[in-house]
Amino acid sequence: MDAQSRGRADEIDPADQWVLNPQTGEYELRLTQSGGGSSRRPTTPGQRGSRRAGAGREGSGERRSGPRDGGGRDNGPRREVPAQRGRRTANGPRGPEGSGPDTAGRRKRKQPKSRRKKALIWTGGGMAFVLVGLSIGAYALYQHFNSNLSTIDTGDVGNKNVTSDAPLNILIIGTDKRTGKGNEGYGDKGSVGHADTNILFHVSKDRTNATALSIPRDLITNIPDCETTLPDGTKKVIPGTRNIRFNTSLGQDGRDPGCTMRTVEEITGLKVDHFMMVDFNAVKELSTAVGGVKVCLAHAVKDKDSHLDLPVGESTIQGEDALAFVRTRHSFGNRSDLDRIKVQQQFIGSMIRQMKSDDTLTSPTKLYDLANAATKALTVDKPIGTGTKLVSLAKELSKVDTKNITFVTAPVINNPAEPKPITVVLHPEKADQLFAMMREDTSLTEVKNQKKAAQSKQDAQLKGTKAAAADVRVDVLNGGDRPGAAQETVTWLQNNQGVLKSTNKANAPAKISKTTLEYAPNQADQARALAAMMGLPGSALKQGTTDAEGLQAMVLTLGADFKGAGVPITGPAKAPADVPLANAAKAECAK
């Protein structure tokens, strides 16, 4: 029985049988009998199906084996991982699957369904790494991938833990920096690397669904003060700027990705846990590593600026063509950056589908190429800056089914301050409705089911008698960014709701993203009354373990989700009307 058949028969992925021999530095095929004994002498990739040195992927030019041009990292010689697909021919080198005399009369064994089939590879980046970790099973590879990764210390912003029992928010940043061979004609000449493409990937607490929120680079917003870490390890606070393009939250005045994370938090009210940053090379190398990405055009495109030249219908693109596709703006829609965002979402969705296809998942070579290219292309925050930590994060993301990933763009309108608008501002109502849904962890693909579950939880929290307004005693603190929010709330409670025992306790010790109401078990009736007045969700109520004594008050801490006294904090049950949504599992044609 050959390696492929044996692996399938024993419910073991064949890729798990390739291991790295630390003495030789080569990969070896290690097969184990059902009874535990070795059935075959180890075989190195050079003996079995390795790729010829210097052989390039069709259409992608020669393979690089030395330092990465312009990347600043010495990659060294490339270690080959054995190809799983195909069979060795009688003449030596392995040919395509089904070629060679030894395949005659053999039927292709039906492969059993595997949990890897459902694995999600987001951004074409870190998630490829988890697939390699799970499929190749060689821990020594982690050290190799570790050396590929670049990290940035974002200070006190973000989550110092890789994951937690909570929703997960990862900011994907694509810069316009012209690093790498062949990128001289892209982006702004001499750019320090602005936040050109920005996607906040929100994964639900139960890991059943995700929302990929695109934030336009030309959005006019406020960039807060941010602390950055200089090369010598010292800290520097970069002053904030008001009414400026979002893309300047990175690069401008020395701002690092931590500044972009803070800006996203201020815009959305969502806590950003981690970031992943890529440059132009990422699109070229990742699309090539998976053997090309399928795209569809509603009309032929020959763009003089991006040099994209594709016919109407479906095409498979990689390398320079892939980068040209996601950079093209003047050939789609109304030629704005908003239409380019739609094209980028379609491309990423297609890349996800390609990465999770059998063609990729069953090929150790492709998986290795993908993970190698991904980790070279990635710059991440330090808490996820090692192979093992990236794998932990990737395992969490891999739980999400592609059909439950929704792409959406932050709702915007033309900037009214410009006679001839070239920038945009957030839609005054729709933007916060969408952000509120994300803050409440409400899915755009499973709204009804999730909302029903959330409502049940809230009903359980709020069910019961409510105290009279005159009996409600509460201290109010401001943990958000709205100036005077605590006093505004106290005034509203006293004048409009009759809660005279409310007190302004000024600013909270630290800022929080979501409003909370802490209360003792014997204050539950007061908590229910206050929650009803303010429109607090059940998730905001935090009951303690010991009863309150004497005149002890409940503690209401207003978070970034607080938008004004009397404005309910509970998120809407569905996305705002007329906000386009795209599903990662569905192929669409760029128009």
Low-confidence stretches: 1-19, 25-140
Strand fraction equals: 15-25%
Could you say which overall geometry the principal axes of the C-alpha atoms support? elongated
Roughly how many Å apart are the termini?
A: 51 Å
The overall average pLDDT, rounded, is 76
The value of Rg in angstroms is 27 Å
Strand order of the largest sheet: 5-18-13-6-7-8-19-27
Please tally the β strands and state the result: 27
Biggest beta sheet summary:
8 strands, mixed
What does this structure look like?
The chain is elongated and about 75 Å long. Strand 15 and strand 16 (309-310) form a beta hairpin. The chain contains 14 helices and 27 strands. Helix 2 packs antiparallel against helix 9 (364-377). 26% of the residues lie in helices and 19% in strands. The chain has 591 residues and is of the alpha/beta class. The strands form 9 sheets. The protein has an 8-stranded mixed sheet with strand order 5-18-13-6-7-8-19-27, with helices on both faces.
